[in-house]
Amino acid sequence: MRFLFIHQNFPGQFKHWAPALAARGHEVVALAIRAGETISWSGVRVVPYQVQRGSSKNIHPWLIDFEAKTLRGEACLRACLKLRDEGFVPDVVVAHPGWGESLFLKEVWSKTKIVMYCEYFYGSDGADVGFDPEFPADDPVGSACRLRLKNANYFMHFDQVEYGLSPTLWQADTFPAAFRGKIKVIHDGIDTDRVVPSSKARITVQRGNERFPMAHGDEVITFVNRNLEPYRGYHIFMRALPAILAARPQARVLIVGADDVSYGARSPDGRKWKQVFIDEVKPQIPSADWERVHFLGTVPYETFVNLLQVSAVHVYLTYPFVLSWSLLEAMSAGCAIVASSTPPVREVITHGVTGRLVGFSDVDALAKEVIALLQDRKSARQLGRAARATVVQRYDLKTVSLPQQIAWVEGLVDR
């Protein structure tokens, strides 16, 4: 069979799935926005293409996102036409539609079956938009109109896509009921053989000429975001630090994340969100305590895994939004987790069984639960074991997710 994967930053969510299909003898091609020549990666032929121009000047602000998706869709269309002219006709295309690349695929291969990766469908209420009253929209009606146009991308896909795939039930349920029946829920998968608990784990953090070694069993609190921003609760976590540091004088806090934005808006005064909340809480923390807070920026994956393995308590907070891989990886590493009681977190964590849940904005409850787990290491270990067991049973890459993905997508060819 022939499969085509489309992701502007391939491999993205397809980093295991595409190579697995290639290993089974299928011809697998991927399209990605990048410079350079066609390469072979893990048995997948990765074909680069580029968008020919940027957005128009003076375009209506509500149309900037839609035009960008149209430009990307056209660029992908041209790349697909070239593949077709070379004789490549896929049986199934698996595409992430979030940036518009897959808008025009049926114009190239009218009989090819298309799978849309259904990561998230934006709504003007009931999910991330308007969730955090601390950051209200300046123009709520205008914001709703922007979202309607943002979702136009998905509506243009619905009549040409035969199937959808979503990593969680909650994310699938954000999509309109008329399309929801087409969506299969299979998580991307967690490599639980690679992300494992380790009593021998060590990590050393450096600040200037000082080195701070930490090991499994130490009071290490971890917090991980792609970017440090309110969407993932960075502001709530920072506000809990004064109480946590005061109560636990031996604890160290390791914060991973860049200082840009991934999902939400930038701060009104132009400062990075990282600095906004450092400036807010630092005056409340004695200098000696602040020295125990370490901002690591972005780190290599192996360092990230080591960080989870030494973590005594891992904090994960999020608006009702896309579930981060990092939460499930923390569970796989056997971390004791304190997380926000928001969907889709409640889909994977049961309070008191596989972690502790608190209201997203409840700073006092967050601090209390972190302190309690640092004090009660037996309960922390029990939560960590149960968390890992859940991930192994429901989200393991090799025994659960990948076999389901392969069987499902190969079966589409015969339907």
UniProtKB/TrEMBL annotation:
Pfam families the record matches = Glyco_trans_4_3 (PF12000), Glycos_transf_1 (PF00534)
InterPro entries tied to this protein: Glyco_trans_1, Glyco_trans_4
Entry's Gene Ontology BP terms: lipopolysaccharide biosynthetic process
Q: Which organism is it from?
A: Hydrocarboniphaga daqingensis
Q: Can you name one GO molecular function term for this protein?
A: glycosyltransferase activity
Does Transferase show up as a keyword for this record?
yes
What lineage is this protein's organism placed in?
Bacteria, Pseudomonadati, Pseudomonadota, Gammaproteobacteria, Nevskiales
| Gene3D superfamilies noted in UniProt | Glycogen Phosphorylase B
Q: Which domain of life is it from?
A: Bacteria
Q: Give a yes or no for keyword Transferase in this entry.
A: yes
Q: Which SUPFAM superfamilies match?
A: UDP-Glycosyltransferase/glycogen phosphorylase
Transmembrane ranges, per UniProt, are: none
Annotated keywords? Transferase
What is this protein called in UniProt? Glycosyltransferase involved in cell wall bisynthesis
Question: What residue stretches are annotated with the Glycosyl transferase family domain?
Answer: 24-194, 216-389
